[in-house]
Every structure is written in structure tokens, then in C-alpha cells.
Amino acid sequence: MAVKKDLSIKYLGVDCENPFFLSSSPVGGCYDMVAKCFETGWGGVFFKTVGIFVADECSPRFDQTNKEGLPWIGFKNMEQISDKPTEKNFEYIYKLKKDYPDKVVVASIMGSSDKEWRDLAKMADQAGADLIEGNFSCPQMTSHDMGSDVGTNVELVEAYSKAVSETTNIPFIAKMTPNCKNMEEPARAAIKGGAAAVSAINTIKSITNVDFENNTGMPVVNGKSSISGYSGAAVKPVALRFCAQVMQDPEMNKILKANKKDFGYGHEMSGIGGIETWRDAAEFLSVGCRNVQVTTAIMQYGYRIVEDMISGMRHFMDEKGYNKLDDFIGCVLPNLIPAEELNRDFKVFPKFDNKKCVGCGRCYISCYDAAHQAIDWDEKKRRPILLEDDCVGCHLCLNVCPVQDCITTGEIKWKKGRKKVKVATKKKYD
User: Which architecture does CATH list for 343-414?
Assistant: First the structure.
């Protein structure tokens, strides 16, 4: 039975029918593609990045990583910004807004100078884009005047954000690079320059695989390769970390309020990186994002995955008692605290279910060779035996066990002299 839940949300003052957007990438690079995605149910698109510079692409330019027979753990992309003429791209954006007025069209732009950023912002405005995203983060641009090299330079991020915000009244979103030590600094710079929000993350610089026949990385382009962007499921933990840290930065809202051009929305994040399912999307919303952007999953499964995302999100909300997305956006942030503030007064022993145990011995081997040698092994019964005096409660055994819920959280033991409090632990592992 279909579950009815309201997935609509406001993002930078713009009404969105749902939080699911195409990210600025090959999946949203022309009118026909985006029109198809809108018909399928996506709430909006961050159109493939448009520049004055028109990319001349190499072939091939994609690669992916596998693990134990599982494909698409990660995905490598050596593609640059749009290879179509600037004017043609803005024609697409204009036509999309005309034909789909209720969908959200975000013009992603990238310039190499103050003038180019202003010119592109003006063209995006004239084309009728709802929002503008500035790509400060593409890691494979052939010019050092564009992409992630700009995104790590706080002065340029602020200057180009200022150029766009002074040119148009359309809210500007700065797309951040993860190829940095601290994302808060360029994010603050963007907001100081007049950006209304940030999006994160773009791809991570990578070498995915090595081709030993040509002694180079992959993909192989005439015997050579290049370091370039990594995306897909493998980057989700990194993306969630950056989104959470930026959302928790106390300076962001202060800067927004101090800006002469205050849009009045507060800090609003757009989340990107390894989103394949409704659960992935819910996790990004839980760390404060108000929409999510998807590419790699579409490359694998097509636009129709949004139907599963919408259905799954509605069932999740129904199960948890949420009526709207705002009921749980940012719910995780108060519980993400500095490591030094974590409670260290107790340890949680693992609990073994001998009925579910298949006797593989992975918990014993991992603990003996890589942890604290706190598990003994009954060779006759082929079952683990916990040595509580040696166990530190690290739960490595739980993480290596191949059987769901065979090893779970068990008894809590308090360290000598420590104050006992109510302890919240995870009982069920997905």
C-alpha cells in the first residue's frame, strides 16, 4: 500500500516538490536528459557546469573500483565541464524552465576570471534559472584558473562569490572541494563573498586502479592516465563528514546574518556523494542537508531510481512518525561531538549468538591478530569464547562477522570508580 507523506521542501526560498536532484554531471547535460528526469519524478537538476571554456574531452574517461566481486564500489571520472557551447547550454536551461515551471533548475557555472563569472551569472539570470551554483571544486580541469585549485584558495572563492552575488539577485550556492584539510574555511569565504549556501562534496582526487600492461593508472588514454575525481558509494562517509562539519560551524550563520545581502534562510546545505538509496538520502538530510544530488547511481540504474527513493523515504517517515522532511533534518548534528567529549567510563562487551554462528572463526582470527586477543576458540564446537578480562569493547569482532545479528552489543561494564549513567547503544545492525 502506498504511503502518503509530504516530501516538499523549501531550499533557499525556492519550492521543491522533493529533495532529490540530479547533480551537475553527465546525467544532466542537455534538454532531453533533464526533461526525462523531470518526467520520472526528480525534484530538480543542478545542470552540468557551463563555462566560457568549452571542454575538449579525452576517451575513455571513466573507471570504477570493485571489491570481492562487487562492482561500482567507487567511480572515477576524468570529465570536465560541458563540451557544448555556452549559449546552447543556457538555451537548454531557458527551455527547461519554460516547459517545467514547477521543477527547480540550478545553473552550475565556472569561470576563470572575475569577468567570466559575472558574464555567466548574468546569462544564468537571463535564462530564468531558479538558483546558481558555482563550481569551485572540479578536480580534473586542465586550467589551474578553474576547479578545485580555485576552491582551495579562500581569496578567490570569496572574490568569485562576490562577483556572482553582485551581478544577480538569484541565490548563489558555492560547491566545495573535499581536496582540502578544512572545508569550513573556503565555505566561510564563499558566504563572506555573498553566497547564500554551499553544496558538498565534489569528487575526491584519486587513482582507482593500475593497468600493468601499460604501467599506468586507469582509464588508459593512449598509454597514459591522470589523477582525477572519485565518487560513488565509497565516498559517502567522507561526504557526510564534510557536510556535518560545515553545518556545525558556528561562524557560518554569523557571517550570513552579517552580510548586507541576507537572504534570511540561514545556512542551507546541499548534500552530494555516494547517494544511491532512500537511506543514503535520509542520512544526508539528518546531518542538515535540505536536498541531495545524485550522479553515480543514475549511471548504474537510470533515472527511475528516484521512484524507489521517494517510496523508501515515505515509508521511513511513516515508520518514524515524521510528517515532513523538516521533522528530522539535522537531527544527528547535536549528537556529533568532539572525540574528547565522548563518555569513556564504560566498555560494552560483544554478545555472541551461538545458534546463529556458522563457525567461520573470523571473529577469533581478527581479534587475535588485529585487536586484543580477547576471544578464545572452541575447536570441537567451532564457537568463540569471550575473555572478558582482556576485552576492551572495540567491537571489531562484530564488524567482521558475516552473519547478521550473530554478534551484537551485550553487557555494559563500568570502569572502576566511574559514575554510572544510562547508556544508549545500538542493538540492531542493518
Answer: 2-Layer Sandwich (3.30)
